[in-house]
């Protein structure tokens, strides 16, 4: 993280001579230390999933959620600093509520992403604040069908068919790229999401994790963003484990040959 000159990482409002904003880059490093989060946009809905690292055996299972609903039709998952993520979600809920109160209709996912991207970007402008130490993935369904966006600490946001962030993002992206997301159904995507998170967790084998997963689809959930039923998550985890073991066996056979 060196540049021409020194001291350019002390404020958001100062660029380095080569045009970099170091505080935004540092925020991105904070994201890389967080658990892996993914979003999959398939033909009939959206899946959000996160690798929730268990930092203490005393924590209550299924508590301390990392995926939150913003409105009935949309949700957010994030990687990075949890307090920053909770504030970001709170602001997103205010935006959704304000839109519903003004226009008497749910906010579109693209508009929500645009507003939250602008909010995140505002935190890169002033020396009295710092950028959000999170990357957020927003997913939902609206009049345009399933929608998925990822918002970075800089405030940049993009529409995706499949998105990943956090510590295992590279491994997760590689797995996502193997899928034909346009042809997958939500129930099929649940299994693949479980496998993607399990593969991304390989670099943190010494730590336990919980798989948290939600979905939203017009047919499966009636357009509501809700947690995936526990029995489906457990079934997906078993399937993912078998698939990963099968892939390992194939690699061993190739090495022997």
Describe, in plain words, how this protein is organized in 3D.
- The protein is α+β, with helices and mostly antiparallel strands.
- The chain has a single domain (22-247), classed as Aminohydrolase, N-terminal nucleophile (Ntn) domain (Glutamine Phosphoribosylpyrophosphate, subunit 1, domain 1).
- It has helices at 22-32, 82-103, 109-122, 169-177, 186-200, 230-256; strands spanning 37-42, 45-53, 67-71, 74-80, 134-142, 145-151, 157-159, 162-165, 209-216, 226-227.
- It has a five-stranded antiparallel sheet, covered by helices on one side. A five-stranded antiparallel sheet has the order 3-4-5-6-7.
- A hairpin with a 2-residue loop joins strand 5 (134-142) and strand 6.
- It starts with 21 loop residues before the first helix and ends with a helix.
Summarize the main sheet.
5 strands, antiparallel
CATH superfamily: Aminohydrolase, N-terminal nucleophile (Ntn) domain
Rg (C-alpha, Å):
19 Å
Uncertain stretches? none
Layout of strands and helices, then pairs:
Elements: H1 22-32, E1 37-42, E2 45-53, E3 67-71, E4 74-80, H2 82-103, H3 109-122, E5 134-142, E6 145-151, E7 157-159, E8 162-165, H4 169-177, H5 186-200, E9 209-216, E10 226-227, H6 230-256
Antiparallel strand pairs: 1-2, 1-8, 2-9, 3-4, 4-5, 5-6, 6-7, 9-10
Helix pairs in contact: 2-3, 4-5, 5-6
